């Protein structure tokens, strides 16, 4: 059974393990811990196992900004990113929600498009030669 809910501090190690599985290190541990404490981390579960998470903030021109969506590689293409985004849209503290991904990240662009996000701009010079595409959706 798939479920989505806000993360609690007891979930931290499992979330960091998923993040480390994807990026190869635990460098975002403090960032994830802070997001959990602020109530800005959402987790997707399969049965009782955490399989993915989403982190957002509200510092992007007073709008929600999804800064990170990570799904365990073994659980990708099973709808977990969409579940996380649906939950985010239904609970967002703002009516406008933004996010972004690199132009080279075709899979994430497909996730945004599938979930009704539209392109809203491009930011150059974050990653050399790979512009960041901004996405937007309104409640």
From TrEMBL:
Cytoplasm listed as a keyword: no
InterPro entries: Acyl_CoA_acyltransferase, GNAT_dom
Molecular function per GO: acyltransferase activity, transferring groups other than amino-acyl groups
Residue intervals passing through the bilayer: none
Pfam assignment, any one: Acetyltransf_1
Gene3D superfamilies per record: 3.40.630.30
Protein name per Swiss-Prot or TrEMBL: Acetyltransferase
């Amino acid at each position: 059974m798939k479920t989505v809910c806000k993360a609690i501090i007891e979930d931290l190690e499992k979330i960091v393990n998923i993040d480390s599985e994807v990026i190869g290190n635990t460098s975002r541990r403090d960032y994830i811990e802070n997001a959990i404490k602020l109530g800005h981390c959402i987790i997707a579960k399969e049965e009782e196992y955490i399989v993915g998470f989403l982190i957002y903030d509200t510092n992007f021109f007073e709008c929600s900004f999804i800064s990170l969506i990570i799904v365990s590689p073994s659980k990708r293409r099973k709808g977990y990113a969409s579940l996380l985004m649906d939950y985010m849209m239904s609970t967002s503290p703002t009516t406008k929600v933004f996010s972004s991904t690199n132009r080279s990240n075709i899979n994430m662009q497909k996730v945004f498009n599938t979930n009704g996000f539209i392109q809203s701009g491009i930011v150059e010079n974050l990653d050399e030669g790979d512009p960041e595409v901004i996405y937007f959706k309104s409640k």
